[in-house]
Design brief:
By secondary structure, the protein is of the alpha/beta class. The chain is built from 7 helices and 18 strands.
């Protein structure tokens, strides 16, 4: 039986694995990392090729190894995939892939996975991590699955009647697919802004729909700002409420590129949607836009369906967290949920989860 199973080999999962190994847990014998992807890179592996390293959010260093210098015009997916792969090899991290985790539940004869019931007497039992490649029994689980596998598709009246193409950020590959089209981009985050600029540069006619006026900010993104963001996100998770997206708290940095986009009219929202029609959309102010495609840049939700058997949700819809610790389930630690869903806090959360796991296993930790 393992001491720890880490689910997910993105930034947070690899950080956790690094600290587990650094503090003496033996790869393969004491812990493993399970990753559903075919190759290293985490969610970055799936980013569109036109998202270059220079245009992406900052790629934060993993513990113990800095990101090597790279061409800023190279796709971020390639740079990060190479970096993560080298990292896994350098530190001998036991990443098993591709392995899809199907469920996590207590190891108990009275547990029935089909009906999802967790008997009250399983609190001291090990956990079983059920996967498409077999089962793993473990004392603790560090869940680091992030959000990429859970794209959020908001519903609007008439959405099923639209005759054109609809796709999510999750499925975007290239602006070349939209040549000669009229494209509606929905969403108020960085991905939406980047899509709009790329489409405009390619000569595609666009319109932008947001629920609220886009929040551009000139505030310096310094450590104090980062701590303030995490505090505001964590206030909700501590109360058992669904977490806000980090970008929803941070706003959009008013870069020179974005300022040019605003001046050109590309980054000017037409407001919220009222309904969707066969030919396009109607905005809340009654104006219409005829669209060939709708690109939903509407974010993601935590990818945690496999944790459903543990009954973690509160009446408010969220999970009560104390940092990386889950109030309802001491055998589970979570990173990539709440503030650590962003690269802002993933590395620190990975370290915190590893140290909390070692503490629960009564393993002495070096300073």
């Amino acid at each position: 039986m393992l001491e720890v199973v880490v689910i997910g080999a993105g930034q947070a999962g690899l950080s956790a694995a690094y600290y587990l190994a650094r503090q003496g847990l033996r790869p393969e014998t004491d812990f493993v990392v399970l990753d559903a992807n075919r190759a290293p890179g985490g969610a970055w592996l799936h980013r569109w090729s036109s998202l270059t390293l220079g245009a992406a959010h900052a790629v934060h260093d993993l513990p113990g190894m800095k990101l090597p210098a790279a061409d800023p015009t190279e796709p971020a997916s390639a740079v990060v995939g190479r970096y993560y792969g080298t990292y896994e090899t350098t530190f001998g991290l036991p990443v098993h892939r591709p392995v899809k985790v199907l469920a996590v539940h207590p190891s108990s004869p009275s547990f029935t996975a089909d009906d999802g019931e967790v008997p009250a007497d399983t609190s001291g039992a090990p956990l079983v991590v059920k996967t498409d490649q077999g089962n793993y029994k473990t004392h603790l689980v560090i869940n680091a699955t992030g959000t990429w596998d859970k794209p959020h598709w908001p519903h609007y009246p008439g959405v099923e009647t639209f005759a054109g193409r609809q796709l999510h950020t999750h499925d975007f590959t290239s602006v070349a697919e939209f040549a000669g089209q009229r494209v509606l981009v929905v969403g108020g985050g960085t991905s939406a802004v980047q899509f709009l600029l790329q489409l405009a540069d390619a000569g595609v006619e666009t319109a932008w729909a947001t629920r609220r006026e886009p929040e551009f900010t000139t505030r310096e993104f310094d450590p104090d700002w980062g701590r303030d963001v995490e505090r505001r996100v964590n206030e909700r998770t501590a109360a058992g409420l669904p977490p806000l997206s980090v970008v929803g708290v941070t706003g959009l940095p008013l870069t020179q590129q974005y300022q040019h986009g605003i001046s050109a009219g590309t980054l000017v929202s037409r407001g919220p949607l009222r309904r969707i029609t066969k030919e396009g959309v109607v905005f809340a102010d009654g104006t219409a836009f005829a669209a060939d495609s709708i690109l939903w840049a509407t974010g993601f939700r935590p990818s945690m369906d496999h944790l459903a058997p543990l009954k973690l949700r509160e009446p408010g819809g969220g999970i009560v967290m104390d940092g990386v610790k889950v109030a309802r389930e001491p055998r589970l630690l979570m990173v990539g949920y709440g503030a650590s869903a962003s690269t802002l806090g993933a590395r620190r959360a990975g370290r915190a989860a590893a140290l909390a796991a070692l503490q629960r296993l009564n393993v002495s930790v070096d300073a």
